UniProtKB/TrEMBL annotation:
One of its GO terms (biological process) is leucyl-tRNA aminoacylation. This is Leucine--tRNA ligase. It comes from Hassallia byssoidea VB512170. Pfam families: Anticodon_1, tRNA-synt_1, tRNA-synt_1_2, tRNA-synt_1g. Keywords: Aminoacyl-tRNA synthetase, ATP-binding, Cytoplasm, Ligase, Nucleotide-binding, Protein biosynthesis.
Amino acid sequence: EFRYNPAEIEEKWQKTWTESGLDKTPTNSDKPKFYALSMFPYPSGSLHMGHVRNYTITDVIARLKRMQGYRVLHPMGWDAFGLPAENAAIDRGVPPAKWTYQNIAQMRQQLQRLGLSIDWEREVATCSPDYYKWTQWIFLQFLKAGLAYQKEAAVNWDPIDQTVLANEQVDSEGNSWRSGAKVERKLLRQWFLKITDYAEELLNDLDKLPGWPDRVKLMQANWIGKSTGAYLEFPIVGMDEKIGVYTTRPDTIYGVTYVVLAPEHPLTKRVTTPEQQAAVDAFVKEVTNQSELERTAEDKPKRGIPTGGKAINPFTNEEIPIWIADYVLYEYGTGAVMGVPAHDVRDFKFAKEQNLSIKVVIVPENGEQETSQAYTEPGIMINSGDFDGMASGEGKSAIVEYAEKQNFGKARVQYRLRDWLISRQRYWGAPIPVIHCPNCGTVPVPDEDLPVQLPEDVEFSGRGGSPLAQLESFVNVPCPSCGTPAKRETDTMDTFIDSSWYFLRYPDAKNEQQVFDPAKTNDWMSVDQYVGGIEHAILHLLYSRFFTKVLRDRGLLNFDEPFQRLLTQGMVQGLTYKNPVTGKYIPSAQVEIANPRDPETGETLQIFYEKMSKSKYNGIDPEEVLAKYGADTARMFILFKAPPEKDLEWEDADVEGQFRFLNRVWRLVVSVDNRDAMNRVTTTGELSKAEKELRRAIHTAIKEVTEDLEGDYQFNTAISELMKLSNALADASCKDSPIYAEGIQTLVMLLAPFAPHITEELWHLLGNSDSVHTQPWLKFDPTALVADEITLVIQIMGKTRGAIQVPQQADKAALEKYARESEIAQRYIEGKEIKKVIVVPGKLVNFVIG
Ligand code: ANZ
Ligand code: ZN
């Protein structure tokens, strides 16, 4: 007998499948389509377990759908632009392209080792000119549609290296990763995409996505952050000018005791009195150097300063002071707020700190006034002139209505979502394809000149701004429109742009004439199942939805939403050892399992599961698992250990368990001695009891596995069903029967999407010459599920009165129920009291009556 040798068969079948083109996407087929997509990886250099889990899940789905008769598109690519490649260039002098392509080659090989049924002919890499040419083309579509524009915005500025830093390059203390300098905020002219134009549709269309987790839809809705309220204007004393504020609580207008501007607000300069000028300037400088996070943090004290200017509350005609404060953000609403300390938590804190007056205008229904903190709930209006006594909900509309009549303001809808800042002052990204001409202004690079290629003769010093900006030959070009010497844009695009459209390219990945042929992309889209990490729940998905809608409006696409169903897989966690006193993580190799202590300090260690990461020494290298057990076992373990959306705790014993299960399946199949029976048509004619039972187990497995996979992809319970079937086959007493042969075949076929290599090998050992992966998915026979019946004798007072047919597996209670309800029992009992019922399972029921 020969043994299961994963290393040998996995390599053999991967080679065979590649040669036979098994995983190629069918193009001329009238089958229904299914687009199965994993979020493409960043080519960091090596695969981690999170990748393995992600791609295994998508692969099982793709394989299942093929067997179920769909034509399947299951592609892969690389999200290949970004900072780490540029850091490698700065630190080690390796050109970003070289570093990236080396990593891609290595990771592609690792992916192929997993036996993923990917159509590699459609591979894309966002850093390749034949891809970013179209990223640039899409940018120009946005420009033409008026959806790309430039404005000044704050960037992180390293004053020592004289360069812009990405947020990831600034540590939590606000210092540069490289120079260690305190990072400053600096205003630069930057490119934005007008995602706010689509805020309402992006919010509303979440309703078109029943196949998305509610949690993700909620996160998107919160990010878009729609709120309804009012825009109200406060005239400035002594100036012919007004301060517009946005408020969600117009019902508190009578409680306004001051107005606050964001320090960056253009009116700040104008309302500040000469006495306050110096203090205001100093405060503005300080605040603008802080990040938004620092400014809005709940626990930080609210800081501000009076400008000396005054405004008028148009409802009360009261004069109130104008302040500036760090907690008012320039980018939100109007960048100005009416301060209502009695009913807003931040305003209350601020007023207490700055000694501003607090005026209560809303009280709870029971009338008790709150003075120790802000009362933020709805209630009844007081101290509010003609509006006294109104409920606050009603009051909101009444105030807005009055304001509209008097020209003080109007109703307003506000979104938290801001336009998308896409400019990066870096090298390793798609250059923004425009040229700045002194005569013509901003000129798009003509389509025929795309791509604007990344030059290779650049220097990576990490100092002095973007390498592109320093390269004369790149920067100095004639204007495409008038020929005057002009300057090329040197900003590159945020890498989120590259990943906002890659799924549209796979259906037509090699097209050199067009971004994609709309007929092909419309045919395959939208993605039927998207699988990826929850960390992309907001930005990547929102941006992809935005791009889809814009390209639809440009006439390129005929659908509204890119991803029909979304599965966000849980984390892969490793066993973690931590010293609770020092907070240090200890590698498991240094830990004595029976007595886990810190080898240095002797402290007893905490042991728990946490997301695998290098810094916590709790990772498991996929390569090691593949080398030891093979890809099929790794896949089976990952699928069996937890439902796909839940976190998964890595446990070697369970990996071992799946390896043993595959070995059992192997032995079961290779020990079939009646191979001829395999080819016989199974009949349901006269089957023995054992055959009927086995057949029921087989068809139950088909039914359960199919339902587990079709519902919410419950791979773990599907694998349990396969284990049951393998046990039923091992225990079967009819191993010569064609039913047994049917069972063996069924096990192999149902297992195929999960463990593609071993099943292919076994399929061939069973005498087949085609692939198990091209077999039609099995359908269960409902009649096989019906349990066998037995004859149940009915006795009254020990005397046999007749018999009925009942299901074989009926338990005692069920047998009694069948007997009581039978015509025989009813006839003989005739309303008399039943004193006792004796049930002999499998045989009879005896009623004692009186
Ligand atoms: C007066 C008021 C009274 C407010 C009250 C709240 C409670 P959302 O729901 O997030 O839209 N606000 C407006 N613009 C702001 C800005 N640029 N920076 C900081 N805060 C700003 O919140 C809207 C509320 O946030 C607005 O309603 C305003 O405070 C504040 F009892 O106006 B409110
Ligand atoms: Zn010009």
